[in-house]
Design goal:
Blueprint lengths: L1 E6 L2 E6 L9 E11 L1 H7 L12 E9 L8 E4 L2 E2 L5 H4 L10 E2 L12 E5 L3 E3 L6 H4 L2 H13 L7 E5 L3 H11 L4 E6 L2 H9 L3 E4 L8 E6 L5 H9 E9 L12 H5 L3 E4 L5 H9 L9 E6 L3 H8 L6 E5 L3
Parallel strand pairs: 10-11, 10-13, 11-12, 13-14, 14-15, 16-17
Antiparallel strand pairs: 1-2, 3-4, 3-8, 3-17, 4-5, 5-9, 6-7
Helix pairs in contact: 4-5, 4-9
The chain binds zinc ion (2 copies).
The site of one zinc ion has 6 residues, from helix 4.
Length: about 325
C-alpha cells in the first residue's frame, strides 16, 4: 500500500505491506486524511516520532472480527488505550499511561491507504456528514474538549488567540455557549471568515489588555502565549491548545500576581463533534484550503506548511 513516511525530519512516499489487524482491530481503508499542525511539528522533531504520521481521517472498514463494522464509514479516536489500568477504568482512556497515539506516539497513522484501528476507537460517521466534513472530527473534538474542562458562563468574556484552523474551530464551538466571544488573529481573510459566521474579531494588538476572564491560546506558536497572558483579567483562566516542538521561555511572576489558572487541553471525545457536524452547528468546509490526491502528498505538506494556510486534505480516491 501507499504510505507517507516520516524519518529524521523528512517525509517521503513509501510502499509498505497492508497491516494485518489483530483480533480486536479493524482494517480501515482511508478515504481522506487531513494535515494537522501537529504533523508539521512532528516533522520538526516533536514527540520524536518516526513512521506513518496522520491522525485525522475518514474511511471505510474493510475487515473486522465484528461484522457490524464491515462496510461502515468511520473515523477513529486517536488514543489507543490499554483498557486495563486505573485511568482506563475511570473513563480517562485519553490519559492511559500505556496508550499509543495514532500517527503521533508508537502507532502507525492515517497517511496510508489502510490502517488498523481498535474496534473500541471506531466511530460511525452519520450519513449526512460528507467525507470532507467528517475528516474534521478529530480537531473539532479537540475544540469541544474545552467545554469538558471549564464551565463557560453566558456572561463570560472570552478571547481566542490564533485565527488558524484550530482557533477557527474553537471559536465556533465556544460560540454555542452564548458567551461574549472575540477572535484575535493576524490574518485579515481568516478574521473575515470568522466574522461571516457572526463571531466578533480583532486584529492582534487591537484587543484591550486585561479584559477577558477566559483566553484560549490556539495560535500554534510560542508568541501566542504572551499575547494571551496580556489579555487576561486577574483570576482569569488561560487554556493552552497549541502543541509545538521546542520550549517556551516563561515569566511566571504575572501568573502568581494575577492568580491565573492555566489549563492544558488536548484531545476530546468524538461523539459531540460528530453530532455538531450532523446537526450543522459548525462550518468546517469553509476551512478547506486545498485537496490533493495522495500521489501529491509531498506537495500537500509543502502547501500546508506555508504560513496562513488553512486545512489541506489528502484524498486517497482522487
Ligand atoms: Zn490534529
Ligand atoms: Zn490504560
Amino acid at each position: 500500500m501507499k504510505t507517507l513516511f516520516l524519518r529524521d525530519n523528512e517525509i517521503s512516499l513509501k510502499e509498505q505491506p497492508v497491516p494485518v489487524p489483530c483480533a480486536g482491530d479493524a482494517l480501515v481503508k482511508v478515504n481522506i486524511a487531513g494535515i494537522c499542525n501537529t504533523d508539521l511539528e512532528l516533522i520538526k522533531g516533536y514527540m520524536g516520532f518516526h513512521g506513518v504520521p496522520g491522525h485525522e481521517f475518514v474511511g471505510v472498514v474493510e475487515s473486522s472480527a465484528d461484522e457490524f463494522w464491515i462496510g461502515k464509514r468511520v473515523c477513529g479516536e486517536i488514543n489507543y488505550a490499554c483498557d486495563n489500568c486505573d485511568y482506563c477504568r475511570r473513563g480517562l482512556e485519553r490519559h492511559c499511561p500505556n496508550r499509543t497515539v495514532m500517527g503521533i506516539l508508537n502507532q502507525s497513522g492515517a497517511f496510508a491507504e489502510y490502517l488498523s484501528v481498535p474496534l473500541a476507537n471506531l466511530r460511525l460517521v452519520p450519513g449526512n456528514v460528507p467525507d470532507k466534513a467528517a475528516v474534521f472530527t478529530e480537531p473539532l473534538a479537540a475544540a469541544f474538549e474545552i467545554l469538558e474542562q471549564v464551565h463557560i458562563q453566558p456572561e463570560d468574556s472570552v478571547a481566542v488567540v490564533g485565527d488558524g484552523k484550530l482557533g477557527l474551530l474553537v471559536c465556533q464551538v465556544l460560540k454555542l455557549s452564548g458567551c461574549n466571544l472575540t477572535l484575535i488573529g493576524k490574518h485579515e481573510s481568516k478574521l473575515a471568515l470568522a466574522a461571516s459566521w457572526g463571531i466578533a474579531v480583532l486584529p492582534r494588538g487591537k484587543a484591550e489588555a486585561s479584559s477577558y476572564n477566559l483566553v484560549v491560546e490556539a495560535s500554534g506558536s510560542p508568541s501566542g502565549f504572551d499575547s494571551a497572558m496580556e489579555l487576561l483579567r486577574p483570576r482569569g483562566t488561560l487554556i493552552l491548545k497549541s502543541t509545538y516542538a521546542g520550549n517556551l521561555e516563561l515569566n511566571m511572576a504575572p501568573i502568581v500576581i494575577d492568580e491565573i489558572q492555566i489549563i492544558g487541553s488536548r484531545c476530546g471525545r468524538f461523539q459531540p463533534a460528530l453530532r455538531a457536524l450532523s446537526n450543522g452547528l459548525v462550518n468546517v468546509t469553509d476551512l478547506i484550503d486545498c485537496v490533493y490526491p495522495f500521489d501529491q502528498a509531498l506537495a500537500a505538506f509543502e502547501h500546508a506548511s506555508q504560513p496562513g494556510t488553512l486545512k489541506v486534505l489528502i484524498d486517497f480516491n482522487a
